[in-house]
Amino acid sequence: MAMQFYPPTSLLPYALLAAILLTSSSSAALAADVKGPDDWRFDVMPYGWAAGIGADPQRGGAAWIGFDRILDDLDMAFMGAFAASKGKWRFDADIIYMKLSEKDSGALTVPLGPGIPASASVRVDLKAWILNPNVRYRFYETDKLELSALAGARYLSIEGGMNLAVVSPLGRIAGDLAGTKRWWDGVIGISGHYNLTKGWYVPFLFDMGTGDSQFTWQAVAAVGYRFERVDAVVGYRHIAWDFKGGGALNALFVTGPYVGLAFSF
Fold it and tell me: Residues near 197 by Cβ (< 8 Å), separated by ≥ 6?
């Protein structure tokens, strides 16, 4: 009896996310806002987000890619936030880019006659962008608490590729599939921080919106410490999307702790 070939279990979450694309036709910069004169102030915050990725496809079970898996399969990543502030106004952008890849191989039997032995290899590639540009206005300010209203956008782009090659005595068969999905959403929300002491503070952010997706939201909470020109921040971040009906993907979320340094000048 001919044996069937199953993709290696370690590749299933990536294959699922890539298949979603192929079958389909924040900001973490939570350094405290600065009081002071109406001079421009600029902040740059490189950070690391130890996030996992969860997906809920239209068909099949939910997929989860933990941070340990992402770290093992990471080819390239960039995470950073940039801000410009003047008076009560703040303009910021948060940028995330990740490139992941994984490959594996296995044995199968071509179901012709008594069966022909063959080998197969699978490679899955994923590239993702998450952009969060915002404008904020500080509407409440005391010695302990500051609150800002924000309006902006969220951009999500996922590019998937899959390569399958089968080698047997009959020859070699190979094929490539690729696809890209993009979503733009408008968001509104609130951000701020609460001062615990002169150095310690608790920054937070919540936003929500819609557009190409049915609904998207983000929540961030952290603990920060102010040095003279640098803020150290440790926190937790969650971004989620619920997609409109008719697509291959119901929902997607990225969640996990992060740590960063905000440099001011």
Answer: none
Classify residue 27 by burial, with Cβ atoms within 10 Å: 0-12, 13-18, 19+: buried
In angstroms, the CA 229 to CA 263 distance is 6
Judge contact between 123 and 162, C-beta under 8 A. Answer: yes
In the chain, where the domains are located: 9-258
Burial of 51 (0-12, 13-18, 19+ CB in 10 A): buried
Q: What is the pLDDT of residues 147-165, one digit of tens each?
A: 999 999 999 998 988 777 7
Q: Residue 259: which of 8, 26, 30 has the closest Cα? A: 30
Backbone angles phi, psi at 244, to 5 degrees: -70, 155
Tell whether pTM > 0.90.
no
SS3 breakdown of the chain: % helix, strand, coil, rounded to 5? 10, 70, 25
CATH fold for the domain made of 9-258: Lipocalin (2.40.128)
The residue type of 91 is F
Q: Determine whether 212 is exposed, middle or buried from the number of CB atoms within 10 Å of its CB (0-12, 13-18, 19+).
A: middle
Chain segment 206-217, per-residue pLDDT in tens = 999 999 999 999
Q: Does residue 235 contact residue 223 with C-beta atoms inside 8 Å?
A: yes
Map residue 112 onto helix, strand or coil.
Answer: coil
**Token couple for 229:** 């020109």
Partners of 56 in the β-ladder: 251
Neighbour count for residue 93 (Cβ, 10 Å): 18
First to last CA, the chain: 71
